[in-house]
Amino acid sequence: MGFGDYFISALFLQAGYNSALVAIGAGLLGLSAGSAGAFIFLRKRALVSDAISHATLPGVGLAFIIMVAFGSDGRWLPGLILGSAISSAIGLLMVEWITRKTRLTEDAAIGAVLSVFFGFGIVLLTVIQTMSSGRQAGLENFLLGSTAGMLISEATTIAVAGAMAAGFVFLLRRPMTLVAFDPEYAATTGVNVRNIDLAMMGLALIVTVIGLKIVGLILIVALLIIPPVAARFWTNQVGRMIGIAAVIGGLSGYVGAVLSAAHAALPTGPIIVLVAFGFFMISALFSPLRGGLASALRHQRFQRRVHRRQGLLSLARREPIYDGLTIRILRRAGMIRADGVATARGRIAAEKAAHDEARWAMARRMLPDDSAIERYDGLTPIERMMTPDQIAEIDRMIQSAQTTQGAKA
Amino acid sequence: MIDDLITALGAEFVQLSLTPIVIGTLAAIACALPGNFLLLRRQALIGDAISHVVLPGIVAAFLVTGTITAVPMMLGAGAAAIIAVAMIEIVKRLGRVEPGAAMGLVFTTLFAAGVLFLEITDTSSVHIDVQHALLGNLESLIWFDAEGWGSLLDPAALATLPPQLPRLAVVLVGIGLFIFLFWKELKISTFDAAFAGAIGIRTRVLGFALVVATAVAAVAAFDAVGSIIVIAMFVCPPASARLMTNQLARQVGWSVVFATISAILGYVLAGYGPGWFGSPYAVSAAGMIATVSGVILILTCLFGPQRKRVGQQAEA
Q1: Chain A interface, mutation test: which of B291, B292, B300, B302, most A Cβ atoms within 10 Å?
Q2: Is residue A354 a contact partner of residue A313, using CB atoms and an 8 Å limit?
Q3: Which of A97, A103, A107 minimises the CB distance to B45?
Q4: Tens digits of per-residue pLDDT, A371-385?
Q5: Tens of pLDDT along B147-190?
Q6: Which of chain B's ends, N or C, has fewer CB atoms near its CB within 10 Å?
Q7: How buried is residue B315: exposed, middle or buried, by Cβ count under 10 Å (0-12/13-18/19+)?
């Protein structure tokens, strides 16, 4: 069976019970990571989760050592998860403590905690490697994630915990939204901002520790950051953004796990992250709201309207047009001939544009403070901005101005 | 224990431990120096981001040249660092997101790409893997031809020093010169960017130069000591130093002291510490150096004379 066939069958959960469970677990993990990450992103604390995830390593090492000391083989996943949760909670509290008690900024605290905890974790890993039971511990897999040889009990643990974290996000969504957008206002309505902040980071912590086995602790932070950043391109509404981030996270986890199941030698974490990045690229390029393509198109359309309008005004004033783009636009619209002379259609359009411009000029003199004047962009026809009565008034003023001018002459 | 120390400082020490300690110290100082300015500019995590993207840079250089010689690797890593900084800028502008999120997105993606390239391509013939990237190989940078302290005066033995040592020395001198020559400009633009612009300092160019200096330090140190030390040394010694003094020059001085202590004490604890507990194995020197720098930071957080914010004294 080729890679493609395997991928298709795995995608639809037909490549065996185990890999199906792993894929579902990764999907649920991504779902909770995406939605929890959305709040952290809105609170502008994305990199705190980087400190949390690196701070798991000493906990994994100590849990292993303790479990071995009590005679088990040390690889029992719930025990390792508990250890990592404790040590990353300590890391999180250290970040809080350093920023609150000293004058160091949060980014310095993050950098210090993540590097020191990680360094200490590495020290513990080298200790474990010298232990007789530690040689095949496979704890390095927690760095980059691995689903190869995953036990069904482990996959179930991850799937259940991922689902619970997603439910937790759903329950806390209102206070977390409030705190993310306006902590001061949240405080005045009686929300305990510090606790909600801790809950948010607690969610990141849960996602991190259950993601250790699949994504690994170096890259799990990507699953918290990339989906919300991608989701932000599609909407300006917080509820929808969280939903989209959850979907992108879930899809990244699911597709990434399936891809890596088809290629057992590859570490799972990097694949999931790159799939998430793919979703980011799609969002950044193609989202109709803020995507690169949409804004480029918008810009081009605006540019064309400006050139068309200015070209028509030049025609009305009988001025020659030199700008290449303007000539092309007018030619294509059938407004001018190849030699630059206006066609009948062009003359009508030019007359209309000039008339509109004259009306706008008069309107600016008559009603300098009108809201329609403030929105004048040199493109919108006046009929769309003002009532017929106003326009009739403007026309009367133009006429009387012309007659007084005629009288003077 | 004294006897231990004396034998420890004999010929074997020069051969096995002197060069790693010196290299570790040079790397630590080279990272701590630009770290001072990054810390004050609230860019402490740029060092973190850069040291993550060094891996894809090195892998790319390997894929292009097919060898693991120093120069293409350093070029590749430097290029990756600059690409990463540019990508962070683009994501920040395009997505209108906070710098932290943009940074997190870029460095995780590039790191993931680096790991994947490494796994897909056949790099089994050469010594390049993720573990090495994270941990470095400080312990293996021994001075094979040294026979004792006298070798320090022997040109033939000196010629066999690990190449990382002279390379890091050059980088350290370069970074030191950069900071010395642009001291006034760096200082003013760090504390008051608007004023610096008003008196004609090109703050953006200077900011970019600082990032380049950071990248150079990260790449040179990374090869010898791995990215854990690099990240720890960018942040911890300057952060500890910040809690000791209100003067920039003294802060830089303290950061050099703390970096040196971390490197030496960390290496000694990793190499000889387990022996004091009766274990014949050494632990990771890179990890231990980072740990020591963290302990120093905790101590300065608790006792540093300038640890509090202005106006916080009364409250706490």
Answers
A1: B291
A2: yes
A3: A107
A4: 777 777 778 888 888
A5: 777 777 777 777 777 888 888 999 999 999 999 999 999 999 99
A6: N
A7: exposed
- The predicted model gives A201-227 an average pLDDT of 90
Identify which of B211, B313, B103 has the alpha carbon closest to the alpha carbon of residue A111: B103
Buried b (16+ CB within 10 A) or exposed e, B283-309: bbbbbbbbbbbbbbbbebbeebebbbe
* A253 reaches B (C-beta below 8 A): no
Of B94, B229, B235, the CB nearest to A108: B235
Delineate the domains of chain A, giving CATH numbers in brackets. 9-287 (1.10.3470.10), 293-401 (no CATH)
Distance from the A265 Cα atom to the nearest Cα atom in chain B, whole angstroms: 8
Of A118, A271, A280, the CB nearest to B105: A280
The C-alpha of A33 sits at a distance from chain B's nearest C-alpha, in angstroms, of: 14
DSSP A260-325: HHHSTTS-HHHHHHHHHHHHHHHHHHH-TTT-HHHHHHHHHHHHHHHHHHHHHHHHHTT-----HH
Task: Tell me the shortest Cα–Cα distance from B10 to chain A, in angstroms.
Answer: 26
* Topology given in CATH for the domain delimited by B2-303: ABC transporter involved in vitamin B12 uptake, BtuC (1.10.3470)
Query: Average model confidence (pLDDT) for chain B?
Result: 84
CA–CA gap between residue A269 and residue A49 (Å, rounded) = 16
Q: Which residue of B has its CA nearest to A232?
A: B95
Selection from A4-13, B141-150, B188-197 with the highest mean pLDDT:
B188-197
Are the C-beta atoms of B138 and B266 separated by less than 8 Å? no
Q: Who contacts B7 (Cβ-Cβ below 8 Å, separation ≥6)? A: none
- The whole model's pTM is what? 0.84
Residue A319 in tokens: 């001025």
Q: Which residues does A65 contact at the CB level (< 8 Å), separation at least 6?
A: A74, A124, A127, A128, A131
* A chain contacts of residue B287, beta-carbon cutoff 8 Å: 118-123, 125-126
CA terminus-to-terminus distance, chain A: 93
Interface contact flag, A107 B43, Cβ < 8 Å: yes
Domain parsing of chain B, residue ranges = 2-303
Chain A residues touching B102 at Cβ < 8 A: 229
pLDDT exceeds cutoff 50 at B315 = no
A292–B contact, CB cutoff 8 A: yes
Q: Which positions in chain B touch A214 (Cβ < 8 Å)?
A: none
DSSP state of A339: T
Residue A26 identity: A
The shortest C-alpha distance from B173 to chain A (Å) reads: 25
* Nearest Cα residue to A315 out of A294, A287, A343, A295: A343
Per the DSSP assignment, residues forming a β-bridge with B26 are none
Q: How many CB pairs under 8 A join A and B?
A: 207
CB contact under 8 A, A269 and B134: no
pLDDT one-digit tens code per residue, B40-99? 998 888 888 888 888 888 888 888 887 767 778 888 888 888 889 889 988 988 878 888
Contact B98 A101 (CB under 8 A): no
